[in-house]
Amino acid sequence: SSLGKRPHQITAMRGTRKYRHIIDTPDPGKWELAGYEESLPISEKSNPITREMDKADPNTLVQLLRDCDAEIFQEEDETIINYQRLYSESILKTVAEIAKKVQLIIENPEDGLIVLSGCGTSGRLALLLANSFNRLMKGLHQSPCYTYIIAGGDRSVVAAQEAPEDNPARGQEELKRVCEGKKKVVFIGISCSLSAPFIAGQLDFCMKNLDVFLPVLVGFNPVSMARNDRIEGWNSTFRQVAEQMQNLHDSQRAFVLNPAVGPEGLCGSSRMKGGSATKILLETLFLVAHKASSKVEVTEKCLLEILRTYERAHKVTYSQSKKIAALVKQSATSLQKKGHLYLLGWGTLGLVGIMDAVECAPSYNADWRDVRGFINGGYHTLENQEGALTSLGPQFTISHEDFVKSVLPSVSETDTIVFLFTMDDEVTEVEKLVELVKEKTSNIHAICHATAGQYLPNSTKKMIPNPIVITWPILFLEYEGAFIQKFQRELSSKWILDTVTSGAHVLKGKVYRNFIVDFAICNSKHFQRAVSVLQRLSGHPETRCTETLLQSIYGEQTEQMRNTEMSQHIRAAMSRDKVLPAAIVSLLRNCPVAEARTRLESSESIRAAIESSLNVPGRKRVAESTESAGRSR
Ligand code: S6P
Question: What's this model's pTM, rounded to 2 decimal places?
Fold first, then answer.
């Protein structure tokens, strides 16, 4: 393909590559060129790789997302804009510096704490990572010193609550609560798109208390692209906070860890690459910190060794592309027939499943019942701070027993079930559950991780005809080796499930080109993204797009609503169906929102409605060039 390739530069760049790559990392994308969707941060740009994704068949879909994921490992290209990347020296250096600060906490756990905080997927990852490293410490008879914060509290782990993300004061309160009495705190604020007010509030608080706190900001945009709009009830923007952090970076009183990993395969869906890169970067950082505390010097080589295991994981995972594509197809068929996708996982893979399932609701305006994740042992295995939340309602039931009791009775042939486990789990337990499910549907799939030499028993193979079996090489490493292996399996499962859930929604018609055209507008980031998608699809200016979006939200009473706060718009948007699709069709056809809604009702999918609106005779083909759109942020 000609995507972003500049033949005269490729040789030069290849020649300067420092490390032998395990996967074929793509050549730098067009998105790196100056001027490409200039007004948008990397995390919100549309990835040139996936421009035609909505027309792709399942096999192609998997390849496209594989290539997007490979961009995580792409090296800095000094001939272009010079974004720092995962393997850039500046990033490796920062990781090593932060690791040293983390090491001090590990060695004095009584007075210290490492806090990971995030919203949505970033918050779920905070929980996963904090628990992993506490487990690592317990295994070494050290006192655990990691904890997590997720915006909205533990209920956000298993059900999407995107609104708390907009609240910086709540972020601060939570931080103060978990750090009470601690003398030294390394605070890791994760916001993939450098945008969440909840995290901005926390970082701001840390910077005002530098005697106790060492704040670290993790995300995947340059600071100059951090979000810069006013935060409701707050006096600075995320960008201002990030700039202050950057100013403290050189004196090591704060750190910003923000390699570019390229735009998401689906525009803005930071749960995908953003989430994966967060996991890779932070696990590597903590692993070297722990090594350092057992007197192994933190060198660039040792960092690279760990990073390369993740790169290897990409290759091993996508060597199963054919089978992944089959699962994408099957899952899409279920969703199209109004069936369900259930992910039944063991151990932390159960949480990976939940993470992917939960995000379908805000990402694709899916019903929370469409895609659901379950974990063996429920909250006990999840190891969340607040314990069992089952009493909050059916959305909060997450154990396999809950699944058998309340979901299984209504499972039918239109549903797809995916089992997620490793060969070290109790495979007989898996078989027992498969046995039960088999009576209801034949669409049974599995993602199973094995170590070289381990084979799936024949009994299991008979029950699950075409499992995705990923065989990992034996790692002869010290104590941490087992963790590295676990991290790889989690990431591998995440990659597969991200692809499956995203791919299935693409095939369901929720995506036009690589824009998700039906997502929940449930926080200010989503509101702005909606406006930006409208601009890029219609070519109309921001004011007109905002106006139409408000009409779609409020119907006739837009006039009074124009000067109300964003939070009010969001509350209203959340109680309304198809807000974004109706606005898109209305703008493209230049018709009232009500008419757009009727058209959507009678259309086979949202994508189809948009496609036919773009083909209305006499329409200017403004949407062809995404490069020129989205100007006015
Ligand atoms: C994104 C996902 C969201 C984000 C959350 C935090 O695909 O739907 O839940 O994880 O909004 O985003 P960020 O950029 O602050 O990490």
Answer: 0.94
